[in-house]
Amino acid sequence: MVIAFSPQSALGQLLLLRSIAIVLQLLLVLISILLLDKDIPHKPVFTIIALESAFQLLSIFVYRRSREISEKAMTLQLVADILFLSVLLSFLGGASNAFVSLLLLPCIIAAVTVSIGYVLFVSISALAAYGYLYIAVSMPMHHHGMHMGEHLLGMFVNFVFMVVVTVGVVALLVKRIREREALLAKTREKQLQQEQLLALGSAAAQVTHQLATPIAHLSLLLEELHEDFPDHPAVREMTNPISQCRAQLEGFRDQTELLKLKGNKKALSSAFVLEQLEELMALQYPKQVIEIEEKTPSVDIQGDPMLIPSLLNLVVNAAKANERANKTVIALNAFANEGHWYLTIKDQGKGIAQQKLDTIGKSVVESDSGFGMALLLTHATLERVNGELKLENMPEGGVLSTAKLPIVGA
């Protein structure tokens, strides 16, 4: 039989501990009968151990293909351990048995493996089991002496105290460990994202450097062609594309130099940002209609050399979505609220697959038009200026992109 769960998993460790407990129970009972001449009810005790062994084999068979189990299933396993131990102890002296403190073990395991609600359920089950053993099983023994009754009562109070303190402390420590692990995971994720951005920036800079020489060479050839054939249509049509390539390269170099200078950030007017977006989109996508509405007066937002290009990426993505859906209107709404400036970009496309919405913009995700690099850069830029980016599908179709940026001095 192939078993999927690992011995290091919570399920594997629980089943291993139960197997050890079953073996120890059987050995202790046999030692008590054969060597210590204890008067033990053989049939019910061996029946309970047999039932516990059958339950163990059934659990292994049921969860053999599972690497982990749900919190509910784990809780049921722990409650079953409490039940088997309680029934076994009810034939072996009840609360007066020295091993009654083992009822604390499922509570500790629950505090480490399941959430607080299930921990409380397991703890209450253990307290109820101890209470049953104290009242229904051990109470008839109290008449043998007042000291015995006081001793059993003290053991019961001590067990309640141990459950409350131990489970509380363990649950608190586990919570802090999980919070620290979540923080470390988030830090590692940010580090990986920065490494991706650094690799992407290095690749972009290398490509730009490699393109600079052939574009300069093409510009010289174009000048010679213009001198020899000034009225040729092909020469005139080549002038504008090559000029755009040179302008893009120069712009990229300027942005790179600005990024190298620390502390060069300055506030940008929201009206200026909207004006730049409108002008750039008119050059790149003249067929798209940009409807801009600034609902509140212009404010100053935290500037960054890559802020406008990053916001332009969002508008460009909207334009591409519109082109795929044969639509032409992009709606931009800007407003200030509670110390932040919001820019919403609404397209008329078909939207983004729901399973990609949570990861797109935060990691490299394959999309219809690439791997989401533009959104990744946009998300990183907004985070750098303490901003946020939110993407959501609209019920009527299309994507609503919301950029949230802090207002300077707010």
UniProtKB/TrEMBL annotation:
GO molecular function: ATP binding; phosphorelay sensor kinase activity
Domain Histidine kinase: 206-409
Annotated GO CC locations: plasma membrane
SMART domains reported for this sequence: HATPase_c
Keywords of the record: ATP-binding, Kinase, Membrane, Nucleotide-binding, Transferase, Transmembrane, Transmembrane helix
Reactions mediated catalytically: ATP + protein L-histidine = ADP + protein N-phospho-L-histidine
Residues passing through the membrane, by range: 15-36, 45-63, 75-95, 102-135, 155-174
Enzyme class: transferase
Enzyme nomenclature, EC number: 2.7.13.3
Superkingdom, taxonomy of origin: Bacteria
Keyword Transmembrane helix: yes
Gene3D superfamilies tied to this protein: 1.10.287.130, Histidine kinase-like ATPase, C-terminal domain (3.30.565.10)
Pfam family, one: HATPase_c
Name under which the protein is recorded: histidine kinase
